[in-house]
Amino acid sequence: MQLQFSSSDSELTVRLDGEIDHHSSIRLRSEIDAAIYAHLPHTLILDFSRVSFMDSSGIGLIMGRYRILQPLGSSIVLLDPAPHISRVLRLAGMERLASIRTSAQKEVI
Question: Is 45 exposed, middle or buried, given 0-12, 13-18 or 19+ CB atoms closer than 10 A?
Fold first, then answer.
């Protein structure tokens, strides 16, 4: 799993590339949390466009970042998940915690 970070005044974008599973999620949590605390973004954008696989560890990853961002008044956007990832997100009820969007459209779910 590769991560690429970019930030603006109010947004932190994390491009995830690869598979999110138990082993990769440990490192992802640590690196994303460090970036959140360094930038204190109003919006965290997790770019899922290059994620090929995600199990329940990905759900935990999103929930944990939500718990960090909520007291800051910040929000999460899940950007461009593949259809099979989007289905997992929907089944887990992630649309209650984060906006799920595509680059070409406004909110999808």
Answer: buried
The answer to the question of residue 36 being in a domain is: yes
What's the Rg (C-alpha) of the chain? Answer: 12
| 109 residues of the chain, pLDDT tens digit each | 899 999 998 999 999 999 999 999 999 999 999 999 999 999 999 999 999 999 999 999 999 999 999 999 999 999 999 999 999 999 999 999 999 998 875 444 4
What CATH number should be reported for the domain holding residue 18? 3.30.750.24
Domain-located, residue 109: no
**And the tokens for 22?**
């138990």
By residue range, what is the domain housing residue 85? 2-101
| Close Cβ partners of 68 (under 8 Å, ≥ 6 residues apart) | 33, 36
